Amino acid sequence: xxxxxxxxxxxxxxxxxxxxxxxxxxxxxxxxxxxxxxxxxxxxxxxxxxxxxxxxxxxxxxxxxxxxxxxxxxxxxxxxxxxxxxxxxxxxxxxxxxxxxxxxxxxxxxxxxxxxxxxxxxxxxxxxxxxxxxxxxxxxxxxxxxxxxxxxxxxxxxxxxxxxxxxxxxxxxxxxxxxxxxxxxxxxxxxxxxxxxxxxxxxxxxxxxxxxxxxxxxxxxxxxxxxxxxxxxxxxxxxxxxxxxxxxxxxxxxxxxxxxxxxxxxxxxxxxxxxxxxxxxxxxxxxxxxxxxxxxxxxxxxxxxxxxxxxxxxxxxxxxxxxxxxxxxxxxxxxxxxxxxxxxxxxxxxxxxxxxxxxxxxxx
Amino acid sequence: xxxxxxxxxxxxxxxxxxxxxxxxxxxxxxxxxxxxxxxxxxxxxxxxxxxxxxxxxxxxxxxxxxxxxxxxxxxxxxxxxxxxxxxxxxxxxxxxxxxxxxxxxxxxxxxxxxxxxxxxxxxxxxxxxxxxxxxxxxxxxxxxxxxxxxxxxxxxxxxxxxxxxxxxxxxxxxxxxxxxxxxxxxxxxxxxxxxxxxxxxxxxxxxxxxxxxxxxxxxxxxxxxxxxxxxxxxxxxxxxxxxxxxxxxxxxxxxxxxxxxxxxxxxxxxxxxxxxxxxxxxxxxxxxxxxxxxxxxxxxxxxxxxxxxxxxx
Lengths: 364, 313
Ligand SMILES: Nc1ncnc2c1ncn2[C@@H]1O[C@H](COP(=O)(O)OP(=O)(O)OP(=O)(O)O)[C@@H](O)[C@H]1O
Ligand SMILES: [Mg+2]
Description:
The structure holds two protein chains of two kinds. Chain A is α+β, with helices and mostly antiparallel strands. Chain A has eight helices and 21 strands. In chain A, strand 9 and strand 10 form a beta hairpin. The two termini of chain A are 24 Å apart. Chain B has two domains: 80 residues, no CATH class; 207 residues, MetI-like (MetI-like fold). Chain B is mainly alpha-helical. Chain B has 14 helices and no strands. Chain B is flat. At the A-B interface, strand 6 and helix 2 of A face helix 9 and helix 10 of B. Bound molecules: adenosine-5'-triphosphate (ATP) and magnesium ion (MG). Magnesium ion (MG) binds next to helix 1 of chain A.
């Protein structure tokens, strides 16, 4: 994203306490116009709380919220120019689908023709026209979620807020709707803030991802950067499945000593100023960056390992070994027919790995 | 030797398989007369007799003439059915100087119960809604005071309220009594509604706020349509409670405004003349008829409402 992008939602130093519990701590985010931002984090880290603050459903304890350069910190939810989609759909059970879609517009006292026009358009976009007369009870989970999205759509707002909209659906439906949401975003070009704890959703949908932990944004960057250059151990371990291998050891003279095995990190791209760093460090290697068989010997680092556990996943296989006393997993083509007890030579390129300060957990 | 051993094992195996196919299948048969059934149905029978017998005696006695009653045999059905005691109880029985029967008390009770039920439920449901969904400042303190109110014994409040009503010029009037019933119904009803509204999904409320509905918009358009069961529960509680009330009726109203229960008491306990058991019984059944009908008509909804809202904290 360019620096000149227009800011759509700005969260400025927002804190929120429930009694003595600090849920959000001096949080700052700038979301650009038309951007798809995903808030990702473990359960209870404050994602929903942040979204509710942006929506105006919770009063912040301190700080400000701007939407379209207007300070909306004290505004009612309806006046903020947002539409929201909830995890439990939250459709009004006694109203028909049409009633659900038009409820907000009626509250805003829009003229009848305008309401009809907008409901028809939303129904067309989401392909729920045949369902307009039905009650939510008579809809499937996927249809309900579409109606819930439609309710945000008819409001014709600039900012969409999604709170785990797909987590109540089964896996198949989830991936279908995921694509539909992406398509919707391409078509409407609204700003979207999307909460999830599903990394696949985050990776596939996001322009940028904000990783949260205990009310603090750990890293806010593109999916590519988050995956390849996590800023700390938490982000590195949270993103990626199976998760990153962490090899702890002493870093001196451009090599990490992992339980007796010396791994040279000469080609590693240190953060500026850290080139001569030394001390206890953690070398993080993604299982999918490990090379097996062909080309192992061209890798800057290679070693012999014995396979302990094999987990076939269909397309590929996860295998567990050890390196220098640390458990070490790698991902391999399932055609290799790996077996438990098999000896194998593995290699990886430290340039693609990550190095962290073992004490502070920060990237070096 | 080994051959036979193998044979035996094989045949044992097939036997086991045959057993698996012919063994228990489907629901386990239960004998109709078992200790368990005897316990269950015996208890149910005893309990129903315990509750139904008085009702039976009352109705039988109320349709007998006085001569027949004097013969005793309270359990025997009437030899000659007469509805005269019912007519007398409704329209002619005397209390003091007044000989209009229960009918006046009935209409008083109607005029007390209907406004009290409507007003108390209207206020309590809004209270409960505000407490459950709009966490306003001081909500917790308000709620604590309200709960505390549910445990204050009525007797403590009797006299202070007499003074308050007198100062307001409402002492003795039906309006005064309606106000008293509304206030005393408030703690338990508010609790009931608060718990019910808390059990509704919070996201629904949030969605309605994003959709621009205000306090009353959400209450009337979202909450009310979802709350029929709890309103029925509240109505039953209030109708029966207020209809059956005796204490407030006798303390806060003048004789011409006495509710039915007070009038019933005055008829049954009147000291002049002979005790007309049949009239008393008829009057009692008449007084109890309203709550009884309410239960019969709305029993199912009542159970559903209790299950839906009242249990959850
Ligand atoms: N009304 C409340 N009162 C007190 N604490 C609350 C309240 N609502 C949320 N919390 C706390 O705030 C923290 C953040 O909650 P939040 O719902 O934002 O988490 P989340 O990141 O959305 O988690 P999830 O992924 O499970 O939805 C949690 O620890 C939760 O216990
Ligand atoms: Mg959440």
